[in-house]
């Protein structure tokens, strides 16, 4: 057992099997096998390390001489494949036979075995086995069996010899010859342990360790170089397409003609050849296999796979594909053009076929497709038509004739040749005049030079002496108007000449709505985005071009725009543990006859994801069968009468949190359960002055239901009397003199009416500033208590006060309203008095004066009026008045001009545009009556707060700096050019929006120990210009939180602490500076860090080292590696430890070692440590002689090593002597 333990200390992790013990001279010979667990490659390295120690000598430093006497090795074999008993395993794939034998020189001391003699020895063996490969390693038999310290004269040189590159039978025959006829090689003798054994080659794969490897060759097209950042991003995108248990690394990255070629290797945990081939069969032939804006379709660097190979042991499979990407196409002249494409891989095609199809072919005209074939991917076209737009396609043709269609975006695959220009007719219009016509593509030219040439009767040609020029007027034409969503659209115009106008004004008027105002959209480009449109509405779209001088040119046509019906979720909330409700809004309201609400678990990563569908005829429905404490994504689908299906424009999330509340001191009392759709729970019906314990069940970021890990307690307060009313306050608000001896002062009580009596005192101040207090005080009572109760407000009403004819076809009427300013609109009805069955005429006005046109001369009319208030409700009809229009054709006193309406101002709308901004629109009468508008906003819930005032030179006010989720009263005052102002207008309210839900955490990944990537999911319907990410070390009391700002949803953060869990949440900041609220919280756990702290020698053969982990408990195992500083090619010593401090044994004396460390974390991942430490072992002391009177015995050590999976080593024979031997005379 002591012998085995000694060898196990020399070879940590090995299993030692002594297979035979026999006497040899005065010592014992022990044949031993060392077994190494793990892979073949690791076993070979460990066996070679042990062999190096054995051949180096100095074994007495390892073996306790009090137990073993003096020890040395006689035979050391190389590693080979064997079973668990040490017998060799022949003929495995990837292995070869090797003959192993140890031969000693008996007739020469070691220093006389020259290089020539060694070559002669090798040559003799190669003569014995022609074509064989012969190598050897040497060690000394130091002769210490002759006595303490040995006898240098008896030292022998042993050659551990290997023969290969021959058949096993040939090698066995050669070994037998060397054993039975050693004289053939000089005075030499071989030791035991010789045999033909099988060793692994570099391609050997153990039957016990077969894994599938998938190798993918990806091309990052258009990448100018293979930067580290690019390859890292590619690897991260590729991992999203691979199974989660596959370990992927980059084999190579090099720049090729089509971009950056990256070869990766993905190791499966076991034999999965079929799954790997299926994955390669899907990825490699796919166009744009990696999604996203970096490597997907439409990106600057799309990715394609050229090859995928799967290997499992000797089983191989491969998938290849060819891709072709159309890069660009452009015109070179009116009749020529060019194009280029990128083949993947570069040698994929033998020729390229380009086709050019005219896009703008006139109806009835034949426009044939042009075909061009080239041997390279660069193409040049000729014979094209001027002023023609061509759509370009390309097909790659391989050597075997297989065709591959090229890919390309719309911007890349079309080009237009420059315009051609020619005369089409020339005719005489008179004896001295004529007309000529030229054709050119629309908008190609706007100036023309005119010359003339005369031809006499004799045919003589005479050129004109000058050139005249004319310019065609600029024009604008609407080309298209298309809806892009239920509330947005785009319109595009063209001009002649191109770029004739620096500004455009697009106008939209809603069909079927006479009172609706036109929507105007100014633009500095010919294409404009139209926002804020009504779903399901129809609009007439027109355009005007605006010159630099402000002159407007109307467009020559009008287009009709039909908006699709709109559908949007407005509510999704939990109503119970397993129930919820969802509500949608459709525009127009009757657009859909059926609604389908779909509920899916959020973050479902293992398809198929279960989906619940709820169908309803109404836009609201109950959701049942939900799981408590689970987050769901809710969407809606609308179905029209014709069966057309329209997806809702947004998605909402529904989460049920289940809070359980139980009396802390009453285990048998029933528990109370409360459901909440947010992370805050509110509990009702509790007993006062009682301690309660509360737990919660929620949902993590992956969508899984999680029971809370802790319980908290709270105590309800004792029931108390209602709080006393607030103490009233009183403040002087003004004081001014009214005469030389009188003054007036005003005070403001809070709350109003808090006081019924007031005491008044006075103090005077003379010219010198001296203050004198009055000698008395007076008291008065308020009048509020003595006033009678207010009278009820009379119902609003209208009264016609005047009606008369203005001319034979026009008339007017004036109305009086009570209360003043109550009505927003007046509708006058005018009817012939003598003809009750005649149709009535209706006229609308926003003021109390109505003017009527289109009347019949010399006719009596009866007029009535109806008022419409700001809520859209109508009053009953007013009184009726009659008037008569004058007869036409008679001289009469000219009618007096219609009365001029007084200037008035009315607010017609007020809306919030964001949580902190809004707008309001006023309507002046008459138009242009005011040069300045002052808008005032007062918080409804805070009458004492300071009002906000905003000035505008137009009737539209824009407000900023408002409070989110707050209701304001808005009024406006107008100021005319003379400085006069109107009284306050009517009041309209607006309520700002609450901050919208912030971004959610889609996933996190630790890149290094101090950095990571946070994958954010922007809020639905918002475009985030920036993300503000808050990082909080968990638990939150450990360290303060900090923020990072990112411009993309893939947010890279650094400056983190290794092995730390961070709580992560984010805010979305839009381009206009508006921010959402904080989103849901996720977590990011950084990788642990490991570095070398120190290393030192503690003796000639021992040392110690310490590593520094961050955090201290991050690693379950430490792997220390020692390499001789002066011998980089020497085999390294590897020591494993479950602590960060380790002790080394079996080192060499007076040697400097470089020490590094790796760590295995709690998840089983290996982390590479940083830094290196050095230690230098001490010089060894002379050996201690054995006790006197002990006869030094004969030591013979014969070691044979061989590998297996797990690898084995065989120590074939070890001899020792010592206290067990008989004394000699």
UniProtKB/TrEMBL annotation:
Annotated stretches, region: Disordered: 704-733, 784-805, 873-899
Alphabetical list of Gene3D superfamilies matching this protein: Immunoglobulins
Record carries keyword Repeat: yes
Keyword Lipoprotein belongs to the record: no
Domain Fibronectin type-III: 472-565, 901-995, 998-1089
Compositionally biased region (Polar residues): 704-715
Keywords linked to the UniProt accession: Repeat
SUPFAM superfamilies documented for this protein: Fibronectin type III
Protein name: Fibronectin type-III domain-containing protein
The species this protein was found in: Chlorella variabilis
């Amino acid at each position: 057992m002591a012998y085995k333990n000694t060898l196990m200390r020399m070879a940590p992790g090995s299993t030692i099997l002594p297979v035979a013990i026999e006497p040899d001279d005065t010592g014992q010979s022990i044949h031993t096998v060392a077994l190494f667990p793990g892979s073949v490659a690791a076993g070979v390295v460990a066996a070679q390390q042990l062999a190096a120690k054995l051949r180096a000598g100095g074994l007495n430093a390892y073996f306790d001489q009090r137990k073993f006497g003096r020890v040395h090795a006689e035979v050391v074999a190389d590693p080979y494949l064997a079973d668990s008993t040490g017998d060799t395993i022949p003929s495995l794939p990837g292995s070869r036979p090797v003959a192993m034998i140890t031969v000693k020189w008996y007739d020469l001391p070691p220093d006389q075995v020259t290089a020539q003699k060694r070559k002669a020895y090798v040559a003799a063996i190669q003569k014995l086995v022609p074509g064989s490969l012969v190598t050897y390693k040497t060690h000394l038999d130091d002769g210490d069996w002759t006595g303490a310290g040995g006898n240098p004269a008896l030292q022998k040189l042993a050659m551990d010899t290997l023969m290969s590159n021959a058949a096993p039978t040939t090698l066995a025959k050669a070994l037998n010859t060397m054993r039975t006829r050693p004289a053939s090689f000089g005075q030499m003798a071989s030791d035991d342990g010789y045999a033909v054994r099988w060793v692994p080659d570099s391609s050997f794969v153990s039957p016990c360790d077969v894994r599938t490897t998938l190798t993918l060759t990806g091309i990052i097209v258009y990448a100018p170089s293979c930067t580290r950042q690019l390859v890292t991003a590619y690897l991260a995108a590729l991992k999203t397409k691979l199974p989660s248990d596959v370990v992927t690394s980059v084999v190579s990255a090099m720049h090729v003609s089509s971009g950056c070629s990256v070869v990766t290797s993905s190791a499966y945990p076991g034999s999965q050849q079929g799954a790997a081939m299926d994955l390669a069969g899907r990825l490699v032939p796919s166009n744009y296999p990696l999604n996203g804006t970096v490597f997907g379709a439409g990106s600057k660097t799309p990715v394609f796979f050229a090859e995928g190979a799967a290997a499992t042991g000797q089983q191989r499979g491969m998938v290849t594909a060819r891709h072709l990407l159309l890069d660009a196409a452009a015109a070179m002249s009116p009749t020529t053009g060019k194009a280029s494409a990128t083949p993947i891989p570069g040698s994929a095609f033998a020729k390229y076929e380009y086709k050019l199809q005219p896009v703008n072919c006139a109806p009835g005209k034949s426009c044939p497709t042009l075909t061009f074939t080239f041997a390279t991917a660069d193409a040049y076209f000729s014979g094209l038509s001027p002023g023609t737009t061509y759509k370009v396609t390309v097909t790659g043709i391989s050597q075997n004739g297989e065709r591959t269609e090229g890919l390309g975006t719309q911007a890349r695959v079309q080009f237009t040749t420059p315009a051609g220009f020619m005369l089409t007719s020339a005719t005489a219009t008179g004896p001295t005049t004529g007309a000529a016509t030229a054709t050119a593509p629309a908008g190609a030219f706007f100036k023309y030079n005119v010359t003339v040439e005369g031809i006499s009767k004799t045919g003589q040609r005479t050129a004109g002496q000058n050139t005249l020029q004319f310019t065609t007027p600029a024009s604008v034409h609407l080309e298209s108007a298309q809806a892009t969503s239920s509330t947005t659209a785009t319109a595009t115009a063209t001009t002649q000449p191109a770029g004739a106008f620096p500004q455009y004004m697009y106008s939209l008027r809603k069909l079927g709505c006479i009172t609706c105002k036109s929507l105007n959209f100014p633009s500095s480009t010919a294409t404009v985005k139209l926002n804020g449109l009504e779903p399901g509405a129809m609009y007439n779209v027109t355009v005007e071009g605006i010159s630099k001088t402000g002159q407007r040119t109307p467009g020559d046509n009008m287009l009709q725009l039909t908006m699709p019906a709109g559908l949007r979720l407005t509510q999704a909330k939990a109503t119970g543990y397993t129930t919820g409700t969802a509500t949608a809004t459709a525009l127009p309201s009757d657009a859909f006859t059926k609604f389908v609400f779909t509920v899916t678990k959020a973050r479902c990563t293992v398809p198929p994801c279960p989906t619940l569908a709820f169908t309803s005829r109404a836009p609201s429905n109950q959701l049942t069968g939900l799981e408590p404490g689970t987050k769901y994504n809710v969407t809606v689908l609308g179905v029209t009468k014709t069966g057309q299906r329209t997806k809702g424009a947004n998605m909402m999330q529904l989460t049920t949190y289940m809070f359980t509340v139980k009396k802390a001191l009453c285990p048998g009392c029933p528990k109370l359960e409360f459901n909440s759709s947010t992370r805050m729970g509110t509990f009702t019906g509790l007993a006062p002055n009682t301690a309660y314990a509360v737990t919660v069940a929620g949902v993590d970021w992956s969508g899984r239901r999680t029971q809370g890990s802790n319980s908290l307690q709270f105590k309800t307060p004792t029931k108390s009397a209602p709080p006393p009313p607030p103490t009233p306050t009183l403040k002087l608000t003004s004081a001014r003199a009214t005469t030389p001896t009188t003054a007036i002062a005003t005070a403001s009580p809070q709350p109003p009416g808090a006081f019924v009596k007031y005491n008044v005192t006075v103090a005077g101040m003379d010219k010198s500033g001296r203050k004198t207090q009055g000698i008395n005080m007076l008291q008065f009572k308020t009048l509020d208590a003595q006033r009678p109760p207010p009278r009820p407000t009379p119902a609003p009403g209208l009264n016609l006060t005047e009606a008369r004819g203005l001319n034979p076809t026009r008339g007017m009427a004036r109305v009086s309203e009570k209360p003043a300013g109550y009505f927003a609109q007046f509708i006058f009805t005018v009817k012939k008095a003598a003809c009750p069955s005649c149709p009535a005429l209706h006229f609308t006005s926003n003021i109390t004066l109505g003017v009527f046109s289109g009347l019949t001369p010399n006719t009596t009319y009866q007029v009535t009026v109806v008022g419409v208030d700001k809520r859209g409700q109508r009053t009953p009809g007013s009184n009726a008045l009659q008037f008569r229009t004058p007869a036409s054709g008679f001289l009469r006193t000219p009618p007096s001009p219609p009365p001029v309406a007084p200037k008035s101002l009315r607010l017609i709308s007020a809306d919030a545009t964001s949580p902190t901004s809004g707008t309001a629109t006023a309507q002046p009468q008459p138009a242009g009556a005011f040069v300045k508008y002052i808008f005032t906003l007062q918080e409804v819930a805070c009458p004492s707060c300071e009002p906000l005032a905003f000035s505008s030179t137009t009737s539209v006010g824009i407000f900023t700096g408002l409070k989110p989720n707050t209701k304001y009263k808005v009024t406006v005052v107008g100021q005319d050019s003379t400085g006069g102002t109107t009284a306050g207008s009517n009041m309209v309210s607006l309520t700002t929006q609450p901050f919208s839900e912030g971004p959610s955490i889609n996933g996190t990944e630790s890149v290094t120990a101090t950095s990571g990537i946070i994958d954010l999911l922007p809020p639905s319907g918002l475009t985030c210009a920036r993300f503000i990410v808050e990082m909080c070390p968990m638990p939150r009391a450990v360290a303060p939180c900090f923020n990072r700002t990112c411009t993309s949803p893939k947010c890279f953060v650094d400056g983190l602490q290794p092995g730390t869990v961070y709580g992560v949440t984010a805010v979305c900041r839009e381009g206009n500076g508006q921010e959402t609220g904080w989103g849901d919280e996720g977590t990011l756990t950084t990788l642990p860090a490991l570095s070398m702290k120190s290393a030192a020698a503690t003796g000639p053969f021992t040392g110690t080292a310490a590593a520094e982990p961050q955090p201290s408990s991050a690693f379950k195992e430490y792997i220390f590696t020692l390499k001789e500083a002066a011998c980089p090619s020497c085999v390294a010593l590897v020591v494993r430890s479950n602590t960060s401090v380790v002790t080394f044994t079996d080192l060499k004396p007076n040697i400097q070692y470089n020490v590094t460390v790796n760590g295995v974390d709690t998840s089983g991942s290996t982390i590479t440590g940083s830094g290196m430490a050095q230690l230098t072992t001490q010089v060894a002391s002379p050996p201690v002689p054995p006790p006197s009177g002990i006869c030094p015995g004969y030591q013979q050590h014969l070691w044979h090593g061989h590998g297996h999976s797990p690898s084995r080593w065989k120590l074939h024979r070890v001899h020792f002597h010592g206290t067990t031997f008989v004394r000699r005379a």
